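dude i think i finally got it to work??
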Amino acid sequence: MLEACCDAGLWVSRINPRQARDFARATGELAKTDAIDARLRCLLSRLFVHRLRRYEAPALWQRELRDWLRRRGHVVVTMQAQKQQTALTSPAVRKLIMRTIGALTRELAAIDREMQVLLNRHTTPALRSSKRLGPDLPGHESCAAS
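look at this
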């Protein structure tokens, strides 16, 4: 929702939830309803307008990369769970699990390729060769070996 508001050209700021609760407590408003929350956030933003920073949404390619990273994490976790199950199952079920692991391994490789394409298209060679990104994706070898 935050990024959709930014894409629509709205001025948006993120507020720390703890600070918003502290502000509500300081005003004496302890009831928790949507209407009260909205009114208090409006008051908070008016009082501290000079201290709020505008939220800048990541570029579309960065959002896509984030989605790929999220999916990659799910695939890695699922692969690990499947591998742990192989030790506890019969040979017939193990065969099915190994087939699933093979499919997940192929999916992981495809995700890594898509991420590398995004990085190559949108980052500089200097940034790609830095420790942060490395020539390959972070954790690529360790996940492929898992």
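Residues 2-47 form one domain.
im so relieved honestly
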